[in-house]
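From the thread on structure requests for the teaching lab: each student submitted one protein with a one-line request. Submission from student K.M.:

"Model carbonic anhydrase from Ureibacillus thermophilus, tokens only."
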Amino acid sequence: MASLNEILRFNKEFVEQKQYVPYITDKFPNKKIVILTCMDTRLIELLPKAMNLRNGDAKIIKSAGAMVAHPFGGIMRSILVAVYELQADEVYVIGHHDCGMSRVDPHHMIEHMKQRGVSQEIIKSIKYSGIDLVEWLRGFGDVEKNVLNSVDIIRNHPLFPKSTPVHGLIMHPETGKLDLLTNGHEYLKQQSE
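Reply posted by the TA:
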């Protein structure tokens, strides 16, 4: 409750003092890009600064591990909306070194759920409804493979425009350095040859 009160108090002053004015933009990304990246706290300000992005330049989608876990899940839907409805014409999948999702143990997380009140009956009912909870919660071991897998899912999605470049990169969360794994323009050129 303390953080909520602090946020609301700050927000009241922010609005009253019109501190929002420098951030006014519209819903269309100025640089016509959509970025799928991790929700890691180190990337909140670092990623946009390292990419020379300002408010309004890009659609940024965040998820644990920058993963497209399911081709018809919310992450892929958001990418399709950005491309078809919000004028994005390039996609960047940006993972990062030292990602917490690379070490997620689903069994450990399920134990934490139980400790916080999720009953064994609920866990069983999820299993019996056809969802493999362990697999659904599983992280990944290799950040490069994860980024390339997400890129592959996007590029090969039946609803994704085949002429739209999808890039894969990894960021160093301390320095902001970006390492290119796959260049979407080069990939498209190879596909047309």
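TA comment: The first strand starts at residue 33 and ends at 38. The mean pLDDT is 95.
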